[in-house]
Specification:
The structure holds two protein chains of two kinds. Chain A is mostly helical. Chain A has one domain (76-356). Chain A is built from 13 helices and no strands. Chain A has helices at 10-47, 63-72, 84-101, 119-140, 144-175, 180-185, 193-196, 198-211, 223-226, 236-262, 277-299, 305-333, 339-374. Chain A is globular, with a radius of gyration of 23 Å. Chain A starts with 9 loop residues before the first helix and ends in an 8-residue tail after the last helix. Chain B is mainly alpha-helical. Chain B has a single domain, classed as Up-down Bundle (Methane Monooxygenase Hydroxylase, Chain G, domain 1), CATH 1.20.58.1610. Helices cover 65% and strands 0% of the residues of chain B. Chain B has helices at residues 6-32, 62-85, 87-114. The longest helix of chain B is centred in the last third of the chain and has 28 residues, at 87-114. Classes of the chains: A mainly alpha, B mainly alpha. Chains A and B meet through helix 1, helix 3, helix 4, helix 5 and helix 10 of A and helix 1, helix 2 and helix 3 of B.
Chain lengths: 382, 121
């Protein structure tokens, strides 16, 4: 009779493992949300020269915990004009795909819910399912702010999904696999994928900010124009599940994808001797990116919707298509070396960054020409 | 996971337990939270104004244009993934085919660009 881990019968171990996987994912999402909301407030406070939360617990550490208790004890108002079924179902529709994404995150060599061989495709599929929940929430609210927020969100999320996936394809091209474990294992040592594919990383990072509704792409919930966007009619725990849990869970998922694909995942010094150290490395790397997201939020202003859409469709998508062709051609021409791909990719980064001022100048010139053409002639005071 | 199909059981379980978790959390909130319904509270929020009409009306068509473009590109991406994985086995022929495929899409994108479909008003 085969014996599973810890001397358990596989018949008992298999369902037990599933329960542990789901339990751990939920545990990490809840704690991650508590920690990240605290970090977000504290770090923005430091950047903006404020104190941030400091009343509840030492350094205000229990502030989000108190907020969570308050949310549970708060009345869930469902306005009478809403579509009851969809309004109630939307939080689950936003939450479930996020939770399911945690299944394939590789925390260490053997610590992952399940290593699907189509891991990347699975993650992109779940990423696009979040849009459904957001649009349904916006539509079901029967509120003009919520509807505009929901539709904007749909436009933004589906648009930025394309460069995001195109960036993932280049990694799949170089590694030749969609499994998160194989991708991590393909980059041992200091030579991680970001050195080979910096341009895909740049594109993915920008698109990931948009996909998680983070500044400078947080138009769906632009509080200065749309109250709270698609979340306007939500309150209490429904709001808590949608915003606090799902948004921060999604940020963690996206950062984990970045770390796994471009920064070697759980690989780091000492992992071979002590495999559990991989969890530490993985968490450290993921939180480095989460902090970068927060830093960006405290620094950059919000884009306008037309800038947002044209940056994606006229900027990111054409260059990512070009990137795929370049990477594929070079991978075929030089099957044994990744150096040509790396050189081409770094050149693309330089060209992209250096091209921004030129495009910007042309855009401004066109805007000024249009303003001149439509301006009323100023009459001298008679 | 040694067993391939068993890992999809995990996907199913994650979805089911996610739905149950949200339901449980909302039920808990329902049990704990007060429920004092007033007509003002149930009114659609519009910054204190009396809402005029419903939000379920017409909305700008450019959302539709972008959705159409998205469908085209998203389907394309589904084709790109298997190609990327089997890329080395397919060799030069695979690359040429993919170049043609992407070129057709690029022409489509260019057409949409010139037709002003990518501008947001």
């Amino acid at each position: 009779m085969p014996i599973g881990p810890f001397g358990l019968d596989p018949v008992i171990w298999a369902p037990l493992r599933l329960v542990i996987a789901v339990g751990l994912a939920l545990f990490l999402i809840l704690n991650g949300a508590l920690l990240q909301i605290y970090l977000e407030r504290k770090i923005q406070a430091i950047i903006q020269d404020r104190l941030g939360p400091y009343h509840v617990g030492p350094f205000g550490l229990l502030q989000t915990f108190a907020d969570a208790l308050k949310l549970i004890a708060k009345e869930d108002v469902r306005p009478s004009a809403t579509d009851a079924w969809f309004f109630v179902a939307a939080p689950a529709l936003v939450f479930c795909p996020m939770l399911a994404s945690w299944l394939v995150l590789p925390f260490a060599y053997d610590i992952t819910g399940a290593d699907l061989n189509i891991g990347l495709l699975y993650l992109t599929t779940l990423g696009s399912m979040t849009v459904l929940g957001i649009v349904i929430a916006g539509w079901a609210s029967n509120n003009k702010y919520a509807l505009v927020g929901g539709l904007r969100s749909a436009g933004q999320l589906i648009s930025y999904e394309i460069p995001q996936i195109l960036a993932l394809v280049t990694v799949a091209l170089v590694v030749g696999s969609l499994s998160m474990r194989t991708i991590t294992a393909s980059q041992p040592g200091p030579l991680v994928n970001v050195l080979v594919l910096p341009f895909s990383f740049l594109v993915y990072f920008i698109a990931a900010l948009a996909e998680t509704n983070r500044t400078p792409f947080d138009l769906p919930e632009a509080e200065s124009e749309l109250v709270a966007g698609w979340l306007t009619e939500y309150s209490g725990m429904r709001w808590g599940t949608m915003l606090a849990l799902s948004e921060y869970g999604n940020v963690t998922v996206v950062c984990s994808i970045i770390v796994t694909l471009w920064f070697g995942g759980w690989q780091g010094p000492g992992v071979d001797a002590l495999p559990l150290l991989g969890v530490v490395w993985f968490t450290l790397k993921v939180y480095a990116f989460i902090l970068a997201f927060m830093w960006i939020r405290a620094t950059l202003p919000r884009l306008r919707i037309d800038q947002l859409m044209s940056f994606c469709w006229k900027g990111l998508i054409p260059v990512s298509l070009l990137n795929i062709l370049v990477v594929a051609t070079l991978a075929l021409a030089f099957p044994s070396s990744r150096v040509p791909i790396a050189i081409a990719n770094w050149l693309l980064v330089v060209a992209f960054v250096a091209g921004i001022p030129f495009v910007q100048r042309r855009r401004l010139a066109a805007l000024r020409a249009r303003a001149r053409a439509t301006a009323q002639p100023v009459r001298a005071a008679s | 996971m040694p067993d391939y199909s068993a890992s999809y059981l995990y996907v199913f379980a994650f979805f089911t337990i996610g739905a149950l978790f949200v339901t449980g959390l909302l039920t808990l909130a329902r049990l704990v939270a007060p429920k004092k319904v007033t007509p003002e509270k149930l009114r659609t929020y519009e910054s204190g104004e009396e809402p005029i009409g419903q939000a379920w009306g017409r909305y700008p068509t450019h959302f539709y244009v972008f959705a159409l473009l998205f469908v085209v590109f998203d389907v394309e991406v589904i084709f790109l993934f298997p190609w990327a994985v089997l890329f080395r086995q397919l060799g030069g022929a695979g690359l040429v085919e993919m170049v043609i495929f992407i070129a057709i899409l690029a022409v489509g994108l260019y057409y949409a660009w010139k037709k002003d479909a990518l501008n947001w008003y």
